[in-house]
Amino acid sequence: MSRRPHSIVVVGAGPRGTGLLERLGANLGELLPDGELDVHLVDPFPPGAGRIWRHAQSPLLAMNSMAADVTMYTDDSVLCAGPIVPGPSLWEWVQRVRAGELPTETADALGPALWAELTAVDATTFPSRQLQSRYLAWVLRDVVATLPPRVRVHLHTGRATGITETGDDQWVTVDGLAAPLRADTVVLASGHLDAVPTPDERALAARACAAGLRYLPPEQTTDTDLSVVRPGETVLVRGLGLAFVDLVVLLFEGRGGRFVPAADDSDRLRYIPSGDEPVLVAGSPRGATYHSKTHYQLRGGRPPLPRHFGPDQIAPLVADGPVDLRTTLWPLMAKEIAWGWYHELVAGHPDRVPLDLDEFAARFDAAAWGTPAMDALLAEVAPDPLDRLDLDALDQPLAGLTAPTLDALQPLVVDRIAEDLRQHVDPRHTPHLGAFVAMLSVYNEVTSLQGDGALTAASRARDVPWWQSFFNSVASGPPGFRVRQILALADAGLVRFLGPGMWVSVSSDSADGAVLRAGSSATPEVVTSTILVDARLPDSSAARSTDPLLAALVRDGAVSEEILRADDGTVLRNTGLIRVRPADGAIVDARGAVHPRRFAVGPHTAVKVAGAFTRPGMNAQSLRYNDAIARAVLQSLPAESAAAA
C-alpha cells in the first residue's frame, strides 16, 4: 500500500492561475513539507497567457501598462505571510532575453515581428499584448521549473464543465479528457467570464432585430465579429473605456488606415484612411475617454502611504458598525489622494511652491479635508491653478459641458481630452502620478473594508460602484499614443463624441424607417444609425454566465451570488459576483456555508483585486491575496492522502 499524491485542480491557467501556482510553490516548505502533489491547470486557452493575453490576437493591440510597470513576482514591498520569491518584471525579462540569458527566448523562437519589438522596447514602452503573452508563458515555465520534483504540474487544454463529490474527493470534468480529474481542492481562477445579455440588453436586441437593425452586446472586443460594421456607415458606440480603444484599433488601423505625424510639427497625428472605415459616434456616462496613462516617473519619490486612509485612521470610524463610504470615509480617501498629489508637487517641484515638504506635511496633516483651513493651505501651496487637484473634474471631466449642435460640441470635448493628455505626458504635471499612486493605496483599503463588512449594504450598492468607476477612469486609461490616435480620428471626422449622459432608443417611425437614436445631456441633437455597439465587458453575473462549470455550480446551489439587502430585507442590488470568504477566497454556497476545499479568485468574485499582475514595489494587493489563497489551499489538503493500492 502507498499513499496517493495530494491533488489540486486550478480552473484557469492564465496569469491568475500562474500567480496562484507561484505562491503554492513558495509556501510548500512551510505548509506541505513532504508528500507528493499533483497540480492540474485547466484552460481552453494557452497556458500562462490565458484568453485575454493569448498570442492569437491582433499585433496592433497593446497593453495599457509600461514594460517597467508589469510583474508577476513578489518583492520586498509585499507584506504577506509566505516567503518573498523575486523574479523579473516584463522590462527585466526583456533585458535578459536581449542579453541571451534565457535559452528558450531566442529570435527564432519569438519570430521576426516579436523579436523586432523586443529589441525596440524600453522601460516606458507600452508593449503589445503579444509580447506580454510571451512573458506570461515564460513566467509559467519558470514557476514550474522551480518546483521540487515531488510536485508535478499537469496542463490540460480544455474547458472544465462540472464538479462532483464522492466522500472527500472532488471530480472535475474537462472537455477532451476521457476521465475526470480527482482533486482534494479546487480553485476557480478564471479571468473575465462571458455572460448572456441582461434583460435590458435582450429587450434592446429583440427590438433592434425586429426592426432590421444591428446590435452588438457587451463582450471582449477581440472576440467580436466586426465584419458586420460596414465601411462608411455611422456606428453608435456606447462606452469609452478600454473596450472602445480596442474597437478603434481594429476598425481603423486594423482595416488598413495609418497614422502619420501632423504637418505642423506638433505632437499630434494625422490619419490616412484606407476607405474601409466607419464613422463612430461615441458616448458614455462621463462622455470622455478614460484619463491617459502617465508617461513620466515621480520626481519627489513615492509618497509614504497609507498616511491618512490606513487601518489606524479607519478603525475608529468603523468601530461602532458599518458606515457609508461617501459620508464617513470619502473625506479621508480624498485627503489621501490629495496627499499623493501635493507630496509630489512639493517634493518634486520645489521651485513652484512656497513651502518645504516638512512644513507642508505638518499643516496638511492638521487640516481636515474640505475645511477652510485646508482650502487656504492648498491655495497657498499651489499658486498656479493647474497645480491644484480637482477631484470633481477628475471624476467628471465634461460636467456641465453643453453645445447647441454635435458639430459645436466636438472641439469642446476634443480640447479637454487633448489637455488631459498633455498633462499626463508633460513632466511638469507629475502630481497626477502622485495622485494615482495614492489611489492604488486607497483602493486596497476600500477592498479590505468591503470584505470586513465595514460598509453598509446601501453604501456597497450605491457608493462602491461609483468608486470603482472613478478608479477605473484614472487607473485603467489608455497610453498616450492611443489618445493621440483617437484625437487624429476626431480631427478626420471619423470619431465623434456625443458627450456625457448618453442615451439610446429604437424608433420605428423615422422618415428613414426603423433606426437607433442616440443623444446625450450635452446637446439637443440626436444621431441616428442602424447599428449600435456596446463597447464594454459584460456585467458580472454568475447566474447568467456562459461558462458551463460556473453555470452548473450556480444551478446546484454550490455557488451563490452576492446580494446586497437593506436592514428590512429589501434587495438593494445583486452584484452578480461569486460569494467568497474575504480572507482566503473560500466559496460560499447558497445556504451560506463555506466549502472547506473550494476557492475562487478573480473579477467574477466579490473580492475585487486590481489586476492579475501588478507594478513592482507597490505591496500589491493581488500578490498578497494570491498568497493568502495559496496558503489556505495548502492548509485545506488532508493531513494524509488516502491509501492507494
UniProtKB/TrEMBL annotation:
Pfam families in the cross-refs: NAD_binding_9
Highest taxon of the lineage: Bacteria
Domain FAD-dependent urate hydroxylase HpyO/Asp monooxygenase CreE-like FAD/NAD(P)-binding: 9-192
Protein name according to UniProt: Adenylate cyclase
